[in-house]
């Protein structure tokens, strides 16, 4: 059961961070004043 | 430091879930954004609370973020610079919001002035890009300009109403947040944060 819980938490975290990453490459800007390097695999023309 | 931490955590997640390298990159990027923003936000709120300017700083930050997300603007080239600069400007604006006390008529005039200047800035420079991200598509740029002007209009009307009824004490804080957001999207803002101004040909043609 603990293994399932761990997998669930990790996959939820991965999902959350992927969503955040996708919002970072959209037309929307970062919140404050730092913008990390965007990975090549998700860069796109805007 | 943030990047290293993000890489370590993403490596662990990817190893446990057996994802590929592409997913690892994406998760690391998202984590870097999440950690960087969270640390900054928490630091700003804690310092604002200690300086007794919490509410004012919150309203400055909310106004700043709402417009910043849409209009873009200059970015610091290192996280450390970003961290200290963001804290400094948010707290300075928070303090100013607490100290500045204007009559209703003066607040309304300020809102009108900021509105006019922000619309001019929108026509000339918004959305403002960086080397890492530029919006070149003319249709997208026009759409963002229209969205910004609509949002500015709503913001101006709401702030005018709140300052008229007199029960909301943080109109000036909201004003300062908007001023900051638009300032960082102007050429002067780029120079201020020591970052190269990105000249977009479509901007020069008035797009």
TrEMBL record, chain A:
NCBIfam families referenced in this protein's UniProt entry, alphabetically: quorum_AgrD
The name this protein goes by in its record: Cyclic lactone autoinducer peptide
Organism the protein comes from: Paramaledivibacter caminithermalis (strain DSM 15212 / CIP 107654 / DViRD3) (Clostridium caminithermale)
Automatic annotation (TrEMBL), chain B:
RNA-binding found in the keyword field: no
UniProt GO cellular component terms: membrane
InterPro entries recorded: AgrB
One GO term of the biological process aspect: quorum sensing
Annotated keywords: Cell membrane, Hydrolase, Membrane, Protease, Quorum sensing, Transmembrane, Transmembrane helix
GO molecular function terms attached to this record: peptidase activity
Residue ranges that the Swiss-Prot or TrEMBL entry lists as coiled coil: none
Entry keyword Membrane: yes
Pfam family, one: AgrB
Domain of life: Bacteria
Stretches that traverse the bilayer: 26-47, 53-71, 83-100, 106-126, 146-164, 170-193
Name under which the protein is recorded: Accessory gene regulator B
Natural source organism: Paramaledivibacter caminithermalis (strain DSM 15212 / CIP 107654 / DViRD3) (Clostridium caminithermale)
């Amino acid at each position: 059961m603990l293994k399932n819980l761990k997998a669930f938490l990790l996959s939820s975290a991965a999902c959350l961070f992927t969503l955040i990453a996708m919002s970072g490459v959209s037309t929307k800007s970062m919140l404050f004043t730092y913008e990390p390097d965007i990975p090549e695999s998700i860069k796109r023309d805007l | 430091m943030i990047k290293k931490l993000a890489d370590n955590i993403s490596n662990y997640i990817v190893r446990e879930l057996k994802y590929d390298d592409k997913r690892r990159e994406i998760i690391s990027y998202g984590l870097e954004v999440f950690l960087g923003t969270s640390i900054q936000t928490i630091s700003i709120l804690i310092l604002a609370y200690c300086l007794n300017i919490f509410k004012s700083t919150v309203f400055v930050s909310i106004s700043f973020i709402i417009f910043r997300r849409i209009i873009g603007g200059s970015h610091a080239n290192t996280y450390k610079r970003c961290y200290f600069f963001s804290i400094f400007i948010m707290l300075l604006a928070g303090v100013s919001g607490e100290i500045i006390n204007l009559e209703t008529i003066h607040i309304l005039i300020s809102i009108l002035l900021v509105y006019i200047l922000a619309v001019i800035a929108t026509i000339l420079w918004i959305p403002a890009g960086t080397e890492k991200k530029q919006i070149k598509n003319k249709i997208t740029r026009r759409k963002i300009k229209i969205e910004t002007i609509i949002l500015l209009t709503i913001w101006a009307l709401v702030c005018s109403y709140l300052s008229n009824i007199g029960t909301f004490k943080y109109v000036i804080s909201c004003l300062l947040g908007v001023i900051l957001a638009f300032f960082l999207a102007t050429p002067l803002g780029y120079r201020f944060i020591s970052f190269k101004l990105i000249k977009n040909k479509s901007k020069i043609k008035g797009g």
